[in-house]
# Entry
Amino acid sequence: MAATMMDARITTDKTGATEKTEKVLAHIEELANKRFLHIVSSQKAELLERLVRKNKPAFAVETGTLIGYSAIRIARNLPVNSKLVSIEINKFRAAEARKNISEAGLADKAEVVVGEAANVMGSLRAKAGFVFFDVADYLACLKALESNGCIGKGCTIVANNVMWFADKLAPYLAYVRKSGPYSSVYYDFGFDGMEVSIRNEKS
Ligand SMILES: C[S@@+](CC[C@H](N)C(=O)[O-])C[C@H]1O[C@@H](n2cnc3c(N)ncnc32)[C@H](O)[C@@H]1O
# Structure
């Protein structure tokens, strides 16, 4: 099933924007242009934000922090006392991300863990209400989370770049679209797309 960004099922309530958060995000966008860093586009980030606000997860996880752009966009929309764990394999990028997250006033909401995504996922135990895959083997990561009981009913899983990497991601897409426990929708952004999958059953 395909959907557009204007899908009526997703509410567009207020973001958790503050002046300092906005300043850090603008700084990262500028850096990304200068340094050719692949941060998520603003349109895609808006979808992430709406899904986080809709789902109100107590715990969220993402793969691929880079310098913290998507982590900040997710974390600023989390409910009070909720937390994002963002996994980054490169310790220098992780350090830069931590600095940006802290300057954005979100150090208590987002933790950057250095490591390989699927390995770190395998060590998580908390029930995740929101997952964003932006790098690594999405299927291995999802299966690691499932086998730890981290994917509860209603968990929302967003997979980035599913049009660009359609061949590589074919097994992941077949799994979320056809294996049964997920309802999955493709969001078309023209230049690429994201797959949003909701867990219907307990893992
Ligand atoms: C596309 S960028 C992430 C962009 C980020 N989500 C954003 O929108 O701001 C991918 C990042 O994942 C990291 N990475 C690559 N392979 C990884 C792996 N197997 N596990 C964890 N991080 C990885 C890279 O170092 C890079 O910083």
